[in-house]
Amino acid sequence: MVLTPVSELKPGTRLNNDVFTEKGNLLLPKGKMLLPRDLTVLQAFLIEAIDNERPAPPAATDTPLILESTTIKRPERVSFEQSYTSMVHMIKQCFQSALAQDIPVYKLRTGLEQLISHSRHYNILTFYPAQMKQDEYIYHNALLTSLTSYRIAKWMGVPENEGMQVALAGLFHDIGNIRVDPDILYKPSRLEPSELDEMRRHTLYGYEILKKVTGINEGVRLAALQHHEKVDGSGYPLRLDHTRIHVYARIVAVADIFHAMTLSKNYRKAQSPYLVLEQLESESFGKLDPAVVTTFIRKVTQFHNGTSVRLSNGAIGKIVFSDRDHPTRPMVAVNETIYNLIENRKLHIQSVLQH
Questions:
Q1: How far is the C-alpha of 69 from the C-alpha of 48, rounded, in Å?
Q2: Total tally of structural domains belonging to the chain
Q3: 118 burial class (0-12, 13-18, 19+ CB within 10 angstroms)?
Q4: Low-confidence residues in the chain, pLDDT < 70
Q5: DSSP assignment, residue 268?
Q6: Full residue range of the structural domain in which residue 229 is found
Q7: What is the pLDDT of residue 61?
């Protein structure tokens, strides 16, 4: 098999073989003549090279041709999902016993490292836990916040040797909830003022729990304490301004809000990830660290030209162009119609579809 770099392909080139996405789904069919848009789609799917060699006539024993460079190995995808499920169970056991015994940081870190090793298959906008039980929301939120915080830290240039500490900060940010009355924690309706005060104490509880834990640095403890602080000093529990909020807490705050809003709860449906990104953007003015928010939005929307999406009117189309100044409102092609979501504010992307 001879691979041709995508950078060397030209419009008008005819494909001699099917091209598949990383997940093994057909992206471009054999015989298609490449258009400029198709080259953009290949780049959007991070495909570096394709097999465009004319295949020899298959013998009776030949197996179907699959491009090694563009097809994800199914066992690797399964490994990520299995590792994710195992980690949720481990987190649940550790959190439930944390008040009575030491938190097994080394065990949790080892599990996280294994999961992160497969995290190239973790797409922040499209991944949703399979069969998530409502009473396990806090464990899924902890793990997803951990994975996303790790990714944001890498994007922001946090030193490599601190990456796992940021991941642990995301994992433990809400551990104080284990000391909150379950009737308050899982209440399906609006909290009374006294209940809200108790809920907010989870930040203090979390810091107290983590003070005695070894294997984590002070940034992890401060993330538990400060992830609800706001850069304008309006947050809780200490009303700190941006100069006193640890960078781990500023990263975790963005990841936590994103997943809290895109996961379903027993009293609220999951929200569109693109609408949540827009809300994060508005929150970056005085509430969240604008550098963290800008980096997060720019990165998670960067490679989505060609991605299939469902619009709020129910139509399914593909992103064909994203304006870097308005990354949450791309141009979407639905059949022969192009919707410019910057101009059409009545529409938004409801969900990003798996490929």
A1: 8
A2: 3
A3: middle
A4: 1-2, 22-25, 55-78, 267, 303-304, 354-355
A5: B
A6: 74-300
A7: 42
